[in-house]
Amino acid sequence: MRQEILLKLKNISVNYGGVKALDGVDINLDEGELVALMGPNGAGKSTILKAIFGLVPIQSGDILWHNEKISPISYQMVKRGVSFVPQGRRVFADLSIKENLEMGGFAVKDKRIIDQRTKRVLELFPDLKEKLETKARTLSGGQQQMLALARGLMTDPKVLLLDEPSLGLAPKIAKEVFAKIKEINEQHKTAIVIVEHNIKFLLEITRRAYILDKGKIVAEGGSRKLLKSEIIEKVFMGKTKY
Ligand SMILES: Nc1ncnc2c1ncn2[C@@H]1O[C@H](COP(=O)(O)OP(=O)(O)O)[C@@H](O)[C@H]1O
Ligand SMILES: [Mg+2]
Questions:
Q1: Does 159 fall in a domain?
Q2: What is the pLDDT of residue 238?
Q3: How far is the CA of 44 from the centre of ligand 2 (A)?
Q4: Which end of the chain, C or N, has fewer beta carbons within 10 A?
Q5: Is residue 100 assigned to a domain?
Q6: Within a domain: residue 138?
Q7: CB 174 within 8 A of CB 166
Q8: Using CA positions, which residue lies closest to atom 1 of ligand 1?
Q9: How far does residue 11's CA lie from ligand 2's centre (Å)?
Q10: 167 lies in some domain
């Protein structure tokens, strides 16, 4: 039996002034699914995540959450169970790991729930657990990315939107981050939309992917199949002719 579609983007277009960033994009996300969004710089990947999280106005098209049309507004999306980890590991540098996590639980008023969640999240990140009082600024790039992920989990999301989590990390560290993302997906059944440009890594951890170019989805399907297809080379080498 097919699982319920959790989130659906139907024919979504977004403009920034005169720039058409998304042009009729369709995307589905099932419960618990891990899906990749790939494409060259400027393709519109970040804009898709921002549109889902209510950070950019949508010109046309519909966003459906459990088959119901919604107009995304960030704080409401958090309540629905969506968490966004933007590009660039934006941790609070002058706050400790513990404080960063608490900030991630900002929407929760009950201190006990924040404590429970912190404990649960830290089970996934034993390295962070050892350094709870350490200031985020002293962490390595990889550790900061882990912290950004951990913070993203503090709202206990059903959907995690991740924008280029491996950016600027050495390949070995990026691999650890990907492994952790897979673990989050498998253990917590969190659905994840991950934007990446590290194609090989990504296709190893996701079953399904969308390839975006110039604001349009130009290919979608099983990751392994896509990895072998010519489309990847075409899109990423800028030889776009469809
Ligand atoms: N705030 C903005 N104002 C104007 N143009 C933007 C803005 N953000 C993105 N764009 C443009 O929209 C397009 C898609 O950008 P983006 O979604 O960031 O792509 P990606 O994440 O795939 O690199 C690009 O042409 C980019 O220059
Ligand atoms: Mg981007």
A1: yes
A2: 61
A3: 7
A4: N
A5: yes
A6: yes
A7: yes
A8: 16
A9: 20
A10: yes
Would the CB of 46 count as within 6 Å of ligand 1? yes
73 lines ligand 1 (CB under 6 A): no
CATH code for the domain of 107: 3.40.50.300
With a cut of 50, list the residues of the chain below it in pLDDT. Answer: 241-242
Q: How many domains does the chain have?
A: 1
Which residue's alpha carbon is at the smallest distance from atom 25 of ligand 1?
42
Give the distance (Å) from ligand 2 centre to CA of residue 80: 24
Containing domain of residue 87, as a range?
5-236
